[in-house]
Amino acid sequence: MEPNAGSDAAGIETRAEKRGNKWVLNGNKHFISNRANADVVMVMAKTDKAKGAAGVTAFIVEKGTPGFSVAQRQLTMAGPPEGQAELVFEDCEIPEENIIGGVGLGFKAAMASLDEGRVHVGAMSLGAAKRLLEMSVNYSKQRVQFGKPIAAFQAIQFMLAEMATEIYAAEQMVYNTAWRIDNGESLPTESAMVKLFASEMVGRVADKAVQIHGGMGYMAELPVERIYREVRVLRILEGTNEIQKLVISRSLLK
Ligand SMILES: Cc1cc2nc3c(=O)[nH]c(=O)nc-3n(C[C@H](O)[C@H](O)[C@H](O)COP(=O)(O)OP(=O)(O)OC[C@H]3O[C@@H](n4cnc5c(N)ncnc54)[C@H](O)[C@@H]3O)c2cc1C
Catalytic residue at 238? Predict the structure, then answer.
């Protein structure tokens, strides 16, 4: 994404201009993940200003290409220690063969990968939630207050039951949708539902996990507080949850 184009992905300002048999990229990207390991990056740029999404083209840019640099690390609430990156393209020359798909087809290609990406976020949410539940069950059996394990208190039992129920619902959604995509279906609405439900679900589960662990849930000594911070971004990545609701409601109202 770019500083001025996040949810409005077609509003990117990075330009690619044809000069001879090369394309010249100018612009900035930010919040980019995994740049520490990347030998190549895929960059969306406007090749036709007059067109919206249809004027966006995808380019492959290799590490070390003159004009391509990493401007700064952007540290996050919980992400990897190296953080996200801001990428800068200044008169960065790219050969024609580095175009993915074709001129003007970048946005379409990016949209086509969204179904899988959103189910992937659902699966990440599910995995984190299961781990939090497992830790909460174990802790509630071990932690003794008022002469009994806290698992004996109905308040704790109910939180565990709610966590498990939401996890079960998300699991069905993730697995069913992944299976249908694997079998060739295009499922933009269902993928948005999976992303929306599962990422909200893990937020609620993480909150209950902290509560069940009491003060220990807040301490860096246990992984609960780290996971609580890590899962927050799942409501923002891969299209914010407000954008998922737009996708879902548009399909209902079209
Ligand atoms: C840790 C992390 C890693 C990331 N990795 C990458 C990456 O590798 N590559 C990449 O390209 N991007 C990456 N991103 C960017 C991510 O995709 C964007 O942050 C996300 O799409 C939201 O854009 P934004 O941050 O500009 O928020 P904005 O679009 O400015 O949104 C701000 C708020 O307004 C709401 N909003 C916006 N438009 C509407 C609307 N039409 N209706 C209702 N509400 C609306 C949003 O839901 C949100 O609540 C990453 C972000 C983070 C935090």
Answer: yes
